[in-house]
Amino acid sequence: MNAIALPRWALAVPPLAVLVLAFGWGKTDLGPFLLPLVCLALGGAVVAAVHHAEVVAHRVGEPFGTLILAVAVTVIEVALIVTLMTSGGEKAATLARDTVFAAIMITCNGIVGIALLVGALRHRVQDFRAHASGSAFAVVLALVTFSLVLPTFTTSSPGATFSGAQLAFAGVASLVMYGIFVFVQTVRHRDYFLPKVDRTPDDHADAPATRTALISLGLLLVCLVAVVGLAKTVSPTLERAVEAAGAPLSLVGVLIALLVLAPETVAAVRAALRDRLQVSLNLALGSALATIGLTIPAIAVASIWIGGPLVLGLGGKEMVLLALTGAVGTLTLVSGRATVLQGAVHLMVFSSFLFLAVTP
């Protein structure tokens, strides 16, 4: 990381990605020329977002850096979800549920799994703070159970839905719990979420100037807007490809979630390779918490304008995967040490989620 000035490519990629987004926005058929350009811009925006997030994180310190990236991505993602829901359509009823569940599986199994695996392959065994990551995972499990499991069993409204009062309570509870977690992470027990072992040479370099950090913060937001917008732009092409393959349309939501969460994935892997697994876990679990803590309140407010039912309750298959995620995640985080075995198990659960999304 350059602590003095930003490299030219990091300054050029964000506006170029937005320019490509402007050309492709609203087009249902990107064509043979624009589709590769959109994919290239999407990949460049992801890499640039990670770079600028690291610049900001080096300036403000952990865990603020990971929190900024997680919240920024989630806010933009929530805005996209609410926009799609208010536009109506038969898929609007389950859009929030499918997106939140996909994000939970990607963050708690995909990102955690690959970070554990690549980190252990390089460093054999990696240490992290079990009390910090375990408490964050406990909040994730509590919120996802209340928001996505209980609606299947409530009786105040038909189907896997909440009544108006129940949805309002779920929105307030999610927001309050996420606020308490952020307070604990950044103020009350900030030291719990710092890397247990710090062997990264870059951390001892001079921090970037305030002006450089502010520029990177602005460009980070531009990159994230480009990532989400380009993911939405390429979604019609993905939908046609999924239909041609005979896979269920719900797979499109999973693919879009994978694209949107790509910046966190790359940043988590880079941190794990530097023997900073705690940063990787902060990113993964922080993203999961932000997704629930911000999406549920947003759709609770948006439901005032959204016509038709809002299905939040998971089906039996998804509940089994969620229960397995809870059990495996608890056993992984309770030890405070990770090897390739834990990473492989999480990736197996994530692979099962992807496989069943293709062949339900």
Automatic annotation (TrEMBL):
<feature type="transmembrane region" description="Helical">
    <location>
        <begin position="133"/>
        <end position="153"/>
    </location>
</feature>
<protein>
    <submittedName>
        <fullName>Calcium:proton antiporter</fullName>
    </submittedName>
</protein>
<feature type="transmembrane region" description="Helical">
    <location>
        <begin position="100"/>
        <end position="121"/>
    </location>
</feature>
<feature type="domain" description="Sodium/calcium exchanger membrane region">
    <location>
        <begin position="216"/>
        <end position="357"/>
    </location>
</feature>
<dbReference type="InterPro" id="IPR004837">
    <property type="entry name" value="NaCa_Exmemb"/>
</dbReference>
<feature type="transmembrane region" description="Helical">
    <location>
        <begin position="64"/>
        <end position="88"/>
    </location>
</feature>
<dbReference type="Pfam" id="PF01699">
    <property type="entry name" value="Na_Ca_ex"/>
</dbReference>
<keyword id="KW-1133">Transmembrane helix</keyword>
<feature type="domain" description="Sodium/calcium exchanger membrane region">
    <location>
        <begin position="35"/>
        <end position="186"/>
    </location>
</feature>
<keyword id="KW-0812">Transmembrane</keyword>
<feature type="transmembrane region" description="Helical">
    <location>
        <begin position="319"/>
        <end position="336"/>
    </location>
</feature>
<feature type="transmembrane region" description="Helical">
    <location>
        <begin position="34"/>
        <end position="52"/>
    </location>
</feature>
<dbReference type="InterPro" id="IPR052946">
    <property type="entry name" value="Alkaline_pH_Ca-Antiporter"/>
</dbReference>
<feature type="transmembrane region" description="Helical">
    <location>
        <begin position="165"/>
        <end position="187"/>
    </location>
</feature>
<feature type="transmembrane region" description="Helical">
    <location>
        <begin position="208"/>
        <end position="231"/>
    </location>
</feature>
<keyword id="KW-0472">Membrane</keyword>
<feature type="transmembrane region" description="Helical">
    <location>
        <begin position="285"/>
        <end position="307"/>
    </location>
</feature>
<feature type="transmembrane region" description="Helical">
    <location>
        <begin position="251"/>
        <end position="273"/>
    </location>
</feature>
